[in-house]
């Protein structure tokens, strides 16, 4: 049975406004976690969508770079392509170029997935790094303060692709995932771990995502086909930051904000 969830979607006119809202969410969430617990643990996505948010966070003319308590942030990824850190497809490389090379985040607080290793090994090493970073014991699993997700036009999120093995994984924190439709392997956080995040948000842009967004949040529950549907945080709350083009098939929001109840 999927968990009942309140989805709050915030709709902005342009991708630039989505990026600003995402930078604000990142800043407030990291600050709140650092104030409450002395440390903020955030897992970010790759692909193209977060790039503009990273650029804003790093921009010295914006307030964010001064506001984020970088010395209290531990940065993780939700997924990685099985390529090296210099590869054009590397999620880490995109983040390094847009953000990490420009902000005072200590190197030891940047926890990248080692996509250059064999997928099994990379996943096992990342799981061990998370267990170590969160000081987990026994069967404990991590609670990230903020998890920022993207969504592909096939409904995948992180590297949880339609009809792939990782959708059945309940016991690990990180797994390798064979993605036959892309003839490749990925490394991904598992969905129970994503659902355990204190705050979970999707950043989604573009007319090409409008149909799948509608299917995921208003269509029949079929997570094997639309893996993003499996994201139902334990908090019962999920946030979507959308541009108007992506939100075109959702109910008209009031003053830019709409809610959907998923049961
Ligand atoms: O392959 C991936 O795709 C998704 C969505 O990417 P986008 O380019 O449509 O923003 C992304 O969230 C994931 O991290 C990435 O590895």
UniProtKB/TrEMBL annotation:
The keyword Hydrolase applies. Keywords: Hydrolase. Residues 14-239 form the Glucosamine/galactosamine-6-phosphate isomerase domain. Hydrolysis of 6-phosphogluconolactone to 6-phosphogluconate. Its EC number is 3.1.1.31. One of its GO terms (molecular function) is 6-phosphogluconolactonase activity. It comes from the Bacteria. It holds the Pfam family Glucosamine_iso. Pathway: Carbohydrate degradation; pentose phosphate pathway; D-ribulose 5-phosphate from D-glucose 6-phosphate (oxidative stage): step 2/3. GO terms for biological process: carbohydrate metabolic process; pentose-phosphate shunt. The gene is pgl. SUPFAM superfamilies: NagB/RpiA/CoA transferase-like (SSF100950). Belongs to the glucosamine/galactosamine-6-phosphate isomerase family. 6-phosphogluconolactonase subfamily. It catalyses: 6-phospho-D-glucono-1,5-lactone + H2O = 6-phospho-D-gluconate + H(+). It is an enzyme of class 3 (hydrolase). The keyword Protease does not apply. This is 6-phosphogluconolactonase.
